[in-house]
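Q: Can someone sanity-check these two? First one:
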Amino acid sequence: MTLTELKYIVAVARERHFGKAAEACYVSQPTLSVAVKKLEEELDVKLFERSANEVSVTALGEAIVRQAQSVLEQAAAIKEIAKRGKNPLAGALTLGVIYTISPYLLPALVRQVIEHTPEMPLMLQENFTVKLLEMLRTGEIDCAILAEPFPDAGLALAPLYDEPFMAAVPTHHPLASQASVTSEQLKNETMLLLGAGHCFRDHVLEVCPEFARFSANAEGIRKSFEGSSLETIKHMVAAGMGVTLVPRLSVPKEALEPSSKRKRDEEPFIKYLPFAGDPPTRRVVLAWRRSFTRYEAIAALRNAIYACELPGVRRLS
């Protein structure tokens, strides 16, 4: 039994496909298949059920794959301990970030890391919360920036900041003349939502739960529309197709400047409105596996996040 063989069975279990697992491990499919078969023969168990369309993990195989992942993590920890003896921050840090945070935080964060910890380059992964949690569990990424709530996966968490939401409405919309907005006022509007899988969609539906279903009297047109990204939805708002909620960091700085400071040809197409009273918010956290041993790297990343401007959010310690 070798660490390489354990790496192969973890990859097959993750990809549910021998060819894709081989690509992920940078080996040929025959090489991977022979190694997996050799391990099955050595253990005298069947790890995978093979069919024409997919590969599934046997019940016993699930337990063995989990142990294999643990062994691989422990082996990686030995290397990390050796690195930390020389330089605790040496080596790349693989960071996952959800789609509704990454475009607005990463540019500043990457600059901070390059400036203050150039020996620790960031390897970035952008994905949905559920996928990033799975990647954390399997060791594909070291840590992730997520928005609560999410399923408890036994991870270590460090709160970063509470981020308020703002309403985005077309500049010609009646609400645009107001200084603030309430969730009650949004109930009668056409709400533009992110598609299923985005945790921010769930956050919006907490504020306006009636948009969880489409209006029955929408005359054949759905009361709510879905987009693939916040930026796509903003363009739809600018075109007058409806209103939406956005996290504070996604609001362009110039959009909040007084109109007296803008030139006539710089008039925006979207008006961003704060909520009256206590605004709806999301808590953004940094998560990592408890078995991850590069504590200094996590601390350095957190410090780099706090060194970013982060306008309008409440930083947490």
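And here is the second, same format, sequence then tokens:
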Amino acid sequence: MSKQTKFLLNEDQMPKAWYNLQADLPKPLPVVLHPGTMQPVGPDDLAPLFPMSLILQEVSTEREVEIPEPVRDVYRLWRPAPLYRAHGLEKALGTCAKIYYKYEGVSPAGSHKPNTAVPQAFFNKEAGVKRLVTETGAGQWGTSLAFAGGHYGLQVEVFQVRVSYDQKPYRRAMMETYGARCVASPSIETEYGRSVLAKHPDHRGSLGIAISEAVELAVQRDDTKYALGSVLNHVLLHQTVIGLEAMQQMEMADTWPDVVVGCTGGGSNFAGMVFPFIGHGLRGGPKPRIVAVEPAACPSLTRGKYAYDFGDTAGMTPLTKMHTLGSQFTPPGFHAGGLRYHGMAPMVSHAKELGLLEAVAYKQVECFEAGVLFARTEGIVPAPEANHAVRGAIVEALRCKREGKAETILFCLSGHGHFDMASYQKYFAGQLSDESYDEAELAMALAGLPSVPEPA
């Protein structure tokens, strides 16, 4: 058995096109609805928020979408990303499974998010946009858009969820280093933010609220567009460079995954890793089990309802059919801020409804326990979000140990935890708890889902 640890691609082996799962789905995605008319949206309806190039990617059903050469030039700063065999983790678990992980923490921002931040900034720059506004939870997306915006000379403004703004000051400092402006959300800078603070002056914030604030600013100026770091089809499309590279690297390792695992919040790193494998299976190739791991404190896939809902709290965004906890739901302030979103990406949700993936939810402390074991055996300190994927992979490896199966497990390590050490300190001090949501609040949020007649 080979003891090779790293599987590296050359820059000329980087994918030249993103993969679009919509081309291979056995059933098309439900239509997107206008928040005012409840009718299917057209490209013009999305034009105030996005440049036409990204809108066309959003609705495309082409299997391959070309990656512009200028984008690939920036990707070369960190792509192709390495694939590792987790020999140390395998030994510690005493498993007969083979564990591989695709490491996205090698990007300038320390996570997978620049995979979409760079093309979004590029296409906005091409369209003559001067300013981008966005939201961020843990700060990985805000950092990434700040990096990409700085590269293309765009002004970037970021609304960061208040609880993460307070928990992760160095993420904010990194955004400012790249030239972006970061404010805590809810803020006094938007009408919606002020309305939230008027009712709840100490509101901890949510991604839904931060999205509302960013969208409110985006539509006020012609030179400004909105950028989203997850959920939407074009974002998931850009992230497929992860899985496309991983497929080549698994062939280098002379194996193929039996199980592919990823953490899920909005769905971008998960989709980026698993969509190419799902598509390969739909076209006649092997079909690995696909496991989405989400936080038990914000379980959209395992507890949410598959229904039309707003992507933001104020109800300004188009409605998509997705697994949702309700746009009025505010998750508790657990440390995986990037997974604190009320809804799951429509395409990930649709794939689950089609039986193409399964979902599990794990609690915060057990995920940190997995992250610490991974750090001590593999040397990389994962982000709290990525700890969920580590936990999922360990659970699968221990299953293989019980069953005596030598399966191959692949997971996406979506980012490092170098800006999350305060949460690790709390874990070691015994101050990290398994936060849970209010069942009554969840019930109220689900009861408040918009009433939408099923489109014909």
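A (reply): Looked at the second one. The radius of gyration is 20 Å. The chain has a mean pLDDT of 94.
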